[in-house]
Prior knowledge:
Blueprint: E1 3-7, E2 13-17, H1 22-31, E3 39-44, H2 48-60, E4 63-66, E5 78-83, E6 91-92, H3 94-97, H4 107-114, E7 116-120, H5 133-141, E8 145-149, E9 152-156, E10 165-167, H6 173-183, E11 189-193, H7 199-210, E12 214-216, E13 222-226, E14 234-237, H8 242-254, E15 258-262, H9 270-279, E16 281-285, E17 289-294, E18 303-305, H10 317-325, E19 330-334, H11 344-350, E20 354-358, E21 361-365, E22 374-376, H12 380-392, E23 396-400, H13 403-406, H14 412-417, E24 422-426
Helix pairs in contact: 1-2, 1-7, 4-6, 5-6, 6-7, 8-10, 8-12, 10-12
Bound molecules: ligand EPZ.
Amino acid sequence: MDRIIIHGGNRLQGTIHIGGAKNAALPLLAACLLSDETLVLSNLPHLADISTMAHLLADFGVDISMNGDAGNGGNIGRTFELNAGAVVETTAPYDLVRKMRASILVLGPLLARFGKARVSLPGGCAIGTRPVDLHLEALAQLGAEIELDDGYINAKVNGRLKGAHIIFPMVTVGGTENLLMAATLADGETVLANAAREPEVSDLARCLVAMGADIEGIGTDTLRIRGCDHLHGAEHSVVPDRIETGTYAVAAAVTDGDLLLKGTRLDLIESVADILRKAGVEITDTGDGLRVRRASGGIRGIDVTTEPFPGFPTDMQAQLMVLAAVADGASTITETIFENRYMHVPELTRMGADIHVHGSTATVRGGGGLKGAPVMATDLRASVSLVLAGLAADGETSVSRVYHLDRGYERLEEKLSACGAVIERIKS
Length: 428
Ligand code: EPZ
């Protein structure tokens, strides 16, 4: 397994191009199943999860043509042309789904267009049990018959799905996306109340509208979809990755650096920007991106609770903890979305961070500085928090199991070393 070695202490200075959002690209790829015409997706990031989803779609019989490394040194995402006109398979097998839980997002489109789907239950992952009960209950309200056997979801509908008024008991990003896609081809009107408002959900909705779907309320917690008989092809550019943006913003802050993050937008990370500014980070909108640097007064402690959008994103919790660990003063971080998303804590503690977790709240006392150490990645965002800590620490940090990183961060070492980080990947 590859390792990443970091010699900390360098201030990061330079420009980083932000890629298309992984968590938008995955549902957008699944959306190609809703039409027999070609969907062209651009600004796709080069990530393991994107390749896994493309592999799954190709197994269904989707015709996919990919352009390789796009121009500008790979700083412009890839473009995929996808055509699901000749789909012959509607089973998503366990060995693919277990590698990438987001495969569950093919369920809604397959049901809506083909009337059947057999999708492996995704199972849990490091950060939680990650059930999909809300997806299934809502699809059943659209008329799907759903049975579970041998670890698979067997779903079918006689005729078409029927529109319904659905109220999600809790905000679910994937559940909203699955139902949004399914409802576009249902007979009649569907209302999704308490829907997720994440920018990736809105990006999917905008792409579906470009394909001919009738959707109102985009960006709000109530989506109204009038089903139609057919969706046509479209072209869509994936929204920039707000979590990658926030991650590199923290990298600038913890190294007392000065980074220009290009190809992203401030409105995607307002809650993150608010917290970073409270901590003493200067973030300015440059028109084609953001400039991030530590303000003159150092980094102050912050108190934050993760919430569904527009609240502070859970996917930035681990990264913010590193900022808190190097701040002057104490911080509290409360995780409300996932039940086990503090696995970065023991690893950061090995690097000298002073963090105590009580239930869902972590108390972080900064000011002690971090020391490089060998640490282990456990999940995608925990992994990148260890890299951030390594950038801020004195000495050498070795991060193992970096395959987690490759799922969500494109060319991380390359982007960081171009800004002055001493970082390299040791292949093994
Ligand atoms: C999406 O996961 C993201 N993944 C996650 O990003 C992100 O952390 C999460 O949304 C929350 O923002 C993708 O978009 C591919 P949820 P998802 O359904 O859709 C519970 C990353 O690091 N729940 O909003 O799976 C669930 O257990 C990843 O990029 C049910 O109980 O998240 C969780 O506690 C990690 N039943 C909460 O809801 C359900 O049927 C939110 O989950 C569905 C969810």
